[in-house]
Fold this sequence. Notes:
Blueprint: E1 21-22, E2 28-30, E3 36-42, E4 48-51, E5 56-62, E6 68-73, E7 78-84, E8 95-100, H1 103-119, E9 144-152, E10 155-162, H2 172-187
Antiparallel strand pairs: 1-2, 2-3, 3-4, 5-6, 5-9, 6-7, 7-8, 9-10
Amino acid sequence: MVVSGIFGIQPVVADPEATGSLDANPAQLVTPAGINRILEQKTLMFGVIALEDGELVALDGGIHRAAGHTARVLPDGSGRWERRVDTMGSDRRSGSGTLTLDARERKRMNLWADAAWKLGDPANPWPPLDSGANPTVVRSPPPSVWAVLIRRGDVIRIVQGDTWIGKPDELVPLLDWLRERVDAAAGGERIVPSRSE
């Protein structure tokens, strides 16, 4: 039974006693009953990301003193954050922790999840194939990179880009929220995102 919640679904809780086995698809961990527990998706710049059903993962990073941010949000509005710093710069706040979205953030996250799902549609990908931008071509390291992944059932959709490809307008508010929310968590205080309402 599927229960409506954030992102339209609630995760299926697998039997903790069940032992997983690899199916014909090695990226798919399944229980003996065939229920998907974790699916993995390879990204261009962040490696392999494992997602639970209904989870949204947003990541960014860069070079030249840029911090990396990750937020993982589950259908119930709970999540985790991480801030990575590989620099000698003055802002070396790094760490990880949990987060809980307030009602306003949950509403916005639903909108961003739907936007990411639509933009990640392989039949109509972003960026459009005729735009000249190709996110599958790895060039010299760009100053910044980002990715948004969402899983619904057995399907993971991904939208990713870099400085040269740009960002879809629909996901700019999510990526701003990611940076501001994680920076605030790493600094010990909550900052309400203000740029992209």
